[in-house]
Design brief:
By secondary structure, the chain is of the alpha/beta class. Helices cover 31% and strands 12% of the residues. The longest helix has 28 residues.
Length: 462
């Protein structure tokens, strides 16, 4: 645990070279011998908010009866063997499912807004606020949950928050039904009038985290020369490792290996996409994989690297774009997402949507297991992280926002009991759950959030 003469290594330590700035992972050498602090003060919970569009198969009558989203039993003994949440079984000890909440701010409030659900829903997911219908620059929604948290607990990291997405985004101009595209393209709002852009390209995310190349010209030169960011800090790495104990050396080796492997993965994607071969996503940047599965997993791995290096503690992650007709081969279904969501209450088609839902959910345990493999002190990064997953829409067949799918995962620094299925009373705003989660995140001075009417207990009733 000693570093040099027994002094602790600062947590905010960087290895710098001409073309890179690499933050260190947590090391035993960073623990001051006499410091004991509360997690919410010294080590705030990492937050990841994940949105998937088009609601869930379990939100219509047949889906509810067949428990295609919500388990039949409440409390701790719920069955996950069938339905869209079955991939969560291996990590159920880190999961709290909240069923039957409504997302009323996404509903139409005037006749002119009817039909525009796809084009306003995403703006309500983390804001719980009804957006102003406009195609101009006078957009208005609410400050999103992730940004409230970043404002309070993200300011002492190099990047207060990061916003990622998988689908293409176009924040210029209007989309449909009188709504600016920005309402569809982001879930993060720094203020009611400040939507934040989302990054789709893994290569850009990597460069933001590790300062690769320093300038756009430097990044291009490094990529052409096929240089790793680690090539610029080799001497600093050797000097540091000579002063660390063996356990910290092993942690450093794994971290640097993960960085280099990430570079190789991105390099392979770019090579494939610039080879002249036909692409499934011809308009996507060269750093974006054609495979949805590959794209989501590399974005999750980048988030894990960011948490290891403590470059940021807050992510919002938008997995889809409303009205997307993307097909997910890894789901086992050939039906496009948006058409599949309009199932017409046909039972076979509802089951198809459920299998697509299941595939999307299956990507969360991938991320959770990655975080569980990364240790800091006597806990894992999964123990220190809160992951929100849900949709602002309920039954997509009729574009309603009742009984929206939602669960929270991760240890959240001990703030959640987990391994629970909780069912809300009819009409309960999802904002009530969001307000409670903000309290669990250390913001218990907040009295309201969006359209909340109170808090929601995330504990099993005695």
């Amino acid at each position: 645990m000693n570093y040099l003469t027994g002094k602790s290594l600062p947590r905010r330590t960087f290895l710098r070279g001409a073309g890179a700035t690499v933050a260190l992972p947590f090391l035993d050498a960073m623990i001051p011998a006499s410091v004991i602090a509360k997690p919410t003060e010294a080590d705030p919970t990492r937050l990841v908010a994940v949105e998937i569009v088009h609601g869930a198969a379990g939100s219509n009558k047949y889906g509810r009866e067949q428990h295609l989203w919500s388990p039949e039993k409440e409390g701790a003994g719920f069955d996950l063997s069938k339905g869209s949440l079955s991939p969560l079984e291996p990590v159920r000890d880190y999961v709290t499912i909240v069923s039957d909440c409504d997302n009323e701010p996404a509903e139409a409030e005037t006749a002119r807004e009817i039909g525009g659900d796809h084009f306003r829903s995403s703006s309500t997911f983390l804001t719980a606020s009804h957006p102003r219908q406009t195609e101009g620059s006078d957009v208005l929604a609410g400050t999103s949950l992730d940004q409230l948290y970043a404002r309070r607990f993200g300011q002492n990291t190099p990047i207060p928050s990061m916003q990622l997405c998988i689908e293409t985004v176009d924040q210029a101009g209007g989309c449909a039904y009188g709504y600016a595209c920005v309402y569809t393209d982001t879930i993060s709002w720094a203020s009611p009038t400040e939507p934040l852009p989302m990054t789709r390209d893994p290569r850009i995310v990597f460069d933001q985290l590790f300062g690769a190349g320093g300038t756009p010209e430097g990044r291009i030169a490094r990529q052409k020369a096929r240089q790793s960011v680690l090539d610029f800090i080799g001497e600093e790495v050797r000097d540091l490792q000579s002063a660390l104990d063996p356990q910290d050396v092993r942690r450093m080796d794994r971290y640097l290996t993960d960085i280099r492997e990430m570079e190789r993965r991105i390099e392979r994607i770019v090579e494939r996409n610039t080879s002249g071969a036909m692409r499934e996503l011809p308009d996507a940047p060269s750093g974006v994989p054609d495979s949805f599965d590959e794209h989501v997993k590399i974005m999750f791995d980048l988030q894990a690297l960011a948490f290891q290096s403590d470059m940021t503690r807050v992510f919002s992650f938008k997995l889809g774009r409303d009205a997307s007709s993307r097909v997910y081969p890894d789901s086992g279904e050939s039906n496009a997402f948006h058409p599949a969501s309009h199932h017409g209450n046909d039972e076979e088609r509802v089951e198809i949507l459920s299998r697509i839902n299941r595939y999307h959910v299956s990507l969360i345990p991938y991320f959770m297991e990655k975080l569980r493999s990364l240790e800091e002190e006597d806990r894992t990064l999964l123990d220190k992280t809160m992951i929100l997953y849900g949709s602002p829409m309920g039954d997509p067949n009729i574009h309603n926002h009742k009984r929206v799918p939602f669960f929270v995962a991760g240890g959240a620094n001990g703030a959640l009991e987990n391994n629970l299925h909780l069912r809300a009373q009819p009409g309960t705003p999802l904002a009530n759950v969001m307000l409670t989660l903000l309290h669990k995140l250390g913001m218990d001075d907040l009295e309201s959030f969006g359209n909340s009417t109170g808090t929601f207990s995330l504990s099993q009733a005695v």
